[in-house]
Amino acid sequence: AAAGSSDGSYLLGALAVDVVDGVARLHEGGSIAGSTLLLDAAFRRAVFDLGVAVPEAVAMLTATPARTLGVQDHLGRLAPGYAADVLLWDEGLHLLRGWAAGREFSAA
Questions:
Q1: Using CA atoms, how far apart are residues 75 and 63, in angstroms rounded to an integer?
Q2: b or e along 67-82 (b: 16 or more beta carbons within 10 Å of the residue's beta carbon)?
Q3: Where is the Amidohydrolase-related domain (predicted)?
Q4: Domain boundaries, the chain
Q5: Contacts for 95-103: CB closer than 8 Å, 24+ residues apart
Q6: DSSP string, 45-78
């Protein structure tokens, strides 16, 4: 995926892709090949630019994908028996700390 990539040319699998201004396009033909938007930036955009309530935006990043992938029985919410994956955000919705399967990881 081109997520987080700066402007330039890349190989995504067997496809040549050019990233310009945050948009990845196939080198041949110019079709959109994806976005460079990272999940934390998408979260901030949903809340601050689109006015989505934080709980609804969190569900968009957790419960919705878990349900779509068919893993909602052990991922996508905080409850007994679920993976303890948690992120702590500041008021600007920038990541401060995180835990995956109950173990803290670097937010840097």
A1: 7
A2: eeeeebeebbeeeeee
A3: 43-91
A4: 1-37, 39-105
A5: 95/40
A6: IIIIIT---HHHHHHHHTHHHHHHHT-TTTSSS-
